[in-house]
Amino acid sequence: MRPLLALLLLQAFSVTLVHAKEQLLEVVVAEPYLEMRSGPGRGYPVVYVVGRDEVVTVLYSRTEWYKVRAPRGQEGWSRRSDLALTKLVSGEPAPIPPYPDFATHRWEIGAGYGVFNHQNLVTTWGDFGLTDSLDVEFVLQQALGTIDNRYIASLGMRHTFIPEWRWFSPTAGIGFGEQYIDDKVPPKPLQTSNQLAYVSVGARGFITRRFMWRADWRKYVVFTNQNQNEEPEEWKFGLAVFF
Amino acid sequence: MEIRLSSVLLAAALLSGCGWFHRGEKAKTEVVAEEPQGEPSIIEPQVNRRAVKTPKIKAKDFELGGYFGALSIQDFGTNPIYGVRAAYHVSEDIFLEAFLARSKAGTTSLEDVFPAITVVSDSGRRLTYYDLDVGYNVLPGEIFLGRGHAFNSALYVTVGMGDVKFADKDRFALNFGMGERLLITDWLAMHLDVRDHVFETDLTGRTKNVHNIEATLGLTFFY
């Protein structure tokens, strides 16, 4: 047992070793100099400066900052916009990815607060953009009331009108889902899980790079096995990031 | 000389004829057309274009870790709490964070004085919560330790909401917090947090908002 464990540990260690040897991007400073700060933020002091034609190694990024290593081993944080002006050794511009564009982004995750049928609602969502104006949205939410506690999962399509508007773009959507009711107060509900469908109207806007808000109003039809279907309403507001 | 020239011409004519028959194989005809006009080369250079792959830059915007500390559950005493946290840093100022934690409530003073009374069943004393927060780094900076050490740090505020399950009941809860993140290295951070979870309950008679303050110490890794 013990040799096996040692072998496993050794293997794990060798994997990390190989991992450490992973090739890193090297860029040449093309501007007069490149500033390196002590931390990934605008307030941190410049602790080192790399001159033109010197090669720096890019280690990793955090938000808009990149950790770089100077030729003589000093490490620090450089701004994305500064690093984007460097070149590859071959002379081509360095492949520093640009900011994702708000109008054409692909992935989005978000969370927010809402009200579902007079109950507090915690909502989270994931979004995938098929085109600039058509998304698939997957929403997971929990409505917490005094009488019941329900979970709602839904999948739908959403259309964004005028996606190139930065501050405000109206949206409309349609979809279906499932709810699960966990009653707080006995007696148990007649049905603990129902299928549902919805239509929605809403809006979205961008606050800063990669950060956006969304507001949404939904009308549901909850399919029950009684004479009447339920028709609850919901509104919510949330914040999201996109990739 | 003449013979050579005519043979070259003949070869070219033949090749172009072949080209006519193999119209589909466009690339081949082009290769022939590109050959220098003088002598046809006998050895075709076989140089494979080297695929230059520029290494990708790893983004380390995610933070993952755990924490433990003390949670004061209003009317139920102060008790140990432990949980996990995950954060995503959107910009150098803003981050989104999720928490999942559990604790166990003690007894109320009523239960202490009158042991026959139970306000909450034993299984109901288990408290679990999840929170979704948005945070803002209010005071980013550095902390100096002695002469030779400087650690990056940030004082942040968070606000969010979630679900607190206590006394076998799920409740909507708001939370407000403040914390200090100290980066031991660029990928390892220590957190000191104080947060207040506010929710409505009627466990001790009348309905009221209760404040449940926790103080925790955490460790997170950046991915």
Quaternary state of the chains: heterodimer
Write down the CATH class of the largest domain in chain A: Mainly Beta
Rg of chain B computed from alpha carbons, rounded to a whole number of angstroms: 36 Å
| Number of beta-strand segments of chain A | 14
Query: What is the succession of H and E elements of chain B?
Result: HHEEEEHEEEEE
CATH level 1 name of the largest domain in chain B: Mainly Beta
* Most residues in contact, chain pair and counts: A-B, 42 and 33 residues
Secondary-structure-based class of chain A equals mainly beta
Distance N to C terminus of chain B = 72 Å
Based on the structure given, which CATH architecture of the largest domain in chain B is correct? Answer: Beta Barrel
* CATH fold-level topology of the largest domain in chain B: Porin
- Number of separate structural domains of chain A: 2
Order of helices and strands of chain A: HEEEEEEHEEEEEEEE
Name the helicity range of chain B: 10-25%
Main β-sheet, spatial strand arrangement of chain A: 7-8-9-10-11-12-13-14
Uncertain parts of chain A: 13-18
Note the total helix count of chain B. 3
Overall 3D shape of chain A: elongated
Q: What is the percentage of strand-forming residues of chain A?
A: over 45%
Overview of this protein structure:
The complex is a heterodimer of chains A (about 240) and B (about 220). Chain A is mainly beta. Chain A has 2 domains: about 20-95, Roll (SH3 type barrels), CATH 2.30.30; about 105-240, Beta Barrel (Porin). Helices cover about 10% and strands about 55% of the residues of chain A. Chain A contains 2 helices and 14 strands. In chain A, the strands form 3 sheets. In chain A, strands 7-8-9-10-11-12-13-14 form an 8-stranded antiparallel barrel. Chain A has a 4-stranded antiparallel sheet with strand order 1-4-5-6. Chain A has a two-stranded antiparallel ribbon with strand order 2-3. Chain A starts with a helix and ends with a strand. Chain B is of the alpha+beta class and about 220 residues long. Chain B folds into 2 domains: about 1-50, no CATH class; about 60-220, Beta Barrel (Porin). Chain B is built from 3 helices and 9 strands. Chain B has helices at about 1-20, 25-35, 110-115, and strands at about 60, 60-75, 75-90, 95-105, 125-145, 150-165, 170-185, 190-200, 210-220. In chain B, helix 1 packs antiparallel against helix 2. Chain B starts with a helix and ends with a strand. Chains A and B meet through strand 4, strand 5 and strand 8 of A and strand 1, strand 5, strand 6 and strand 7 of B. Strand 4 (about 55-60) of chain A pairs parallel with strand 1 of chain B.
